[in-house]
Amino acid sequence: MTGIGMMRAVPLMCGTFAVATAWGAAPGRPTYTKDVAPIMNKNCVVCHRAGENAPMSLTSFEEVRPWAKAIAKNVGERVMPPWHADKGVGVFANDRSLSDDDVATIVKWVEQGAKQGDPKDMPELPTFPTGEWHLGTPDLVITLDEVTVPAGGPDQFYNLTHKMDLPQDQWLHAVEVNPSNRKVTHHVIAYQTEGDKPPQGWLAAWAAGMDPMVFPDKMGRLLKKDATIIGDMHYHPTETAATDQTKIGLYFSKEADVQKEVINLWIANQGFKIPAGNPSFKARSTFTFPQDSIILSVLPHMHYRGKSFSYTATYPDGRKETLMSTSNYDFSWQT
């Protein structure tokens, strides 16, 4: 499999384009309660609600109305909801992008004055897990060291460690990463390593909008009994100083239930240099599977100069298939 990342020698700049109502079909006179609220409930309030890390709550007309023009602009330009895989290439279970009809409905609603509509049409808000753990009480909780994030300044990066002391290796069927302060936590990646060995792939990851990591039936991750867990932490300071203490909840499988091990493959290229002034430098990395495998997910990753990314599978008969591509890679969003 080949991963191609397009690099350019200047920081990424996001292009914009005019918002128009030609995105798709929209009701003649959409209202918030009847037409817009269902879209917000399905696609937006998972992050835009109290206690989450989005900058404002959008769970009611009173909360949404002051932001109406900004919402129309951001959905029209496909900035929100954040989803960066190109349409028409692959089908993804976690695709949060809006349909053309949904975009047209929101834009037309704003153009016509952002009317509330009949309160009787207002749908109920979706229910979200309550309590500390979305998946219920874990079998084991890892508590990482508390981190103080200063006010303002550059992003902060830490590697926090936790030594396991289990009686035996354990299969995991789910892992939930739970930052205590999601306002400043950009992402968390939990690795495991043994002794002087390099990290053997991550146990789980968390970033804005991500659900806990639950593995398919009969599949799981193997946690070594004496592993050292490394929490790769990325914090984004706000205007005030803050603290975070991230916990990692582990959910054990019955060993007899696991037939396939879920692992990570780092198809990485870290040895290239971008020639000065090159606006679209291509870097390529490949991996040959030694056995038949099932690809569950892909995660394109570059840093600030990353521009676009694609994965191509080449089969034994020479056939090629693009598994995923993103033409507008954005380091701020890790999906």
Write the layout of secondary structure elements.
Blueprint: E1 2-7, H1 32-43, H2 61-64, H3 68-76, H4 100-111, E2 140-143, E3 147-149, E4 156-163, E5 170-178, E6 185-193, E7 202-207, E8 213-214, E9 219-223, E10 228-235, E11 242-244, E12 247-252, E13 260-261, E14 281-286, E15 306-314, E16 320-326
Parallel strand pairs: 9-13
Antiparallel strand pairs: 1-14, 1-15, 2-12, 3-11, 4-10, 5-8, 5-9, 5-12, 6-7, 6-10, 15-16
Helix pairs in contact: 1-4, 3-4
Describe the structure.
The strands form four sheets. Strands 2, 5, 8, 9, 12 and 13 form a six-stranded mixed β-sheet that branches. With 335 residues, this protein is mostly beta strands. 11% of the residues lie in helices and 28% in strands. β15 and β16 form a beta hairpin. The protein has four helices and 16 strands. The longest helix is centred in the first third of the chain and has 12 residues. It starts with a strand and ends in a 9-residue tail after the last strand.
